[in-house]
Amino acid sequence: MKRDEEIRMLLHPEEYTDEQLDKMLDETNATIPDVNEEWNRFQTQHITPKHSRSWMQAAAIFAGVLMLSGIAYATIQMAGSSNNKQETVKQEANAVMVSQQTITEATNDSTTLKPVVFEDAELGTILNEIATFNQLETVYKKEASKHIRLYFTWDKTSSIDDIIDTFNKFERIHMTREDKKLIVE
């Protein structure tokens, strides 16, 4: 059979009978490669000799030991820094106590009781100063309420209850006080 006719038979088998297709398949010469011979050829071309493998194994062991020593060093450094963090926390706590004493002392000074004007400031910024001045903790029920922008004049001689009443007159703000907490809903 001619090559063109074989190609036509492959592309359009519906045009030929089963006998014609069988005849074409019988006439086709396909060589089957020897698997062992092909494997040996692949091994010689692609698989490295044993002495190269031992060098690669030594490199892998060295990399593993290096990685483990790095992890051990990092663990030791982290353990040492946790002691420093505890000392830092103690120092920060002392600093907060000193600043609270300073604020308490400052409330008695008449020059610090001047009104504070906030222009286009976020509620979180305003309440942070008021809460610090009155030694209160601010709790926000909704994170978005921190970002409400206001123009506000804070008279430091006003009581915290008067300030809460003033803020509650705004539509989007509702505040309450429970013990030492200023709660914003």
Walkthrough of the structure:
The protein is α+β, with helices and mostly antiparallel strands and 185 residues long. The chain has a 3-stranded mixed beta sheet with strand order 2-5-4, covered by helices on one side. A two-stranded antiparallel ribbon has the order 1-3. The chain is elongated and about 110 Å long. It contains 6 helices and 5 strands; from the N terminus they run ααααβαββαββ. Helix content is 59%, strand content 14%. Among the domains are: 1-29, no CATH class; 114-182, 3-Layer(bab) Sandwich (Phage tail protein beta-alpha-beta fold), CATH 3.55.50.30.
- What is the mean predicted local confidence, pLDDT? 82
Count of DSSP helices? 6
Helical content band: 55-70%
Report, as a whole number of angstroms, the end-to-end distance. 90 Å
Could you say which overall geometry the principal axes of the C-alpha atoms support? Answer: elongated
Sheet with the most strands, sense and barrel status: 3 strands, mixed
Low-confidence stretches: none
Query: Which sequence of strands runs across the widest sheet?
Result: 2-5-4
Instruction: Return the CATH class of the domain at 114-182.
Output: Alpha Beta
Give the DSSP E fraction (strand runs of 2 or more residues).
5-15%
Q: Structural class per helix/strand content?
A: alpha+beta
CATH topology of the domain at 114-182: Phage tail protein beta-alpha-beta fold
Radius of gyration: 42 Å
**Secondary-structure element string:** HHHHEHEEHEE
Number of beta-strand segments: 5
Architecture of the domain at 114-182 in CATH? 3-Layer(bab) Sandwich
